[in-house]
Amino acid sequence: MAISHTSLTTHSAPFTLTAGRYGVSFTGGTLTRGIDNVELQGLINGNWTSSLNPPIRFDGSSGVGATKATGMLAAGYYRWLVPTGHTFSAVINSL
Prior knowledge:
Blueprint: E1 2-8, E2 15-17, E3 22-29, E4 38-44, E5 47-49, E6 57-58, E7 67-69, E8 76-81, E9 88-94
Antiparallel strand pairs: 1-9, 2-8, 3-7, 3-9, 4-5, 4-6, 4-8
């Protein structure tokens, strides 16, 4: 299973993931090194939260092609939050 997001400029539309571990790859964007973070958020108790453990974040220092493995994610709804004025593309693959 692969979920792709291309040229996001704000938060993505919500998408679902089944419980499991994932590899998340930063495939392009205009993020500023060390300042702006794109973050994967989960919908928990009706609120979008950044408290995933471990957090999945990318910034300009991550570099295109950077891949991060997630811890175990619960089944549910997720979205990307992209800082204003930037673009972000990513692919999520099950491990």
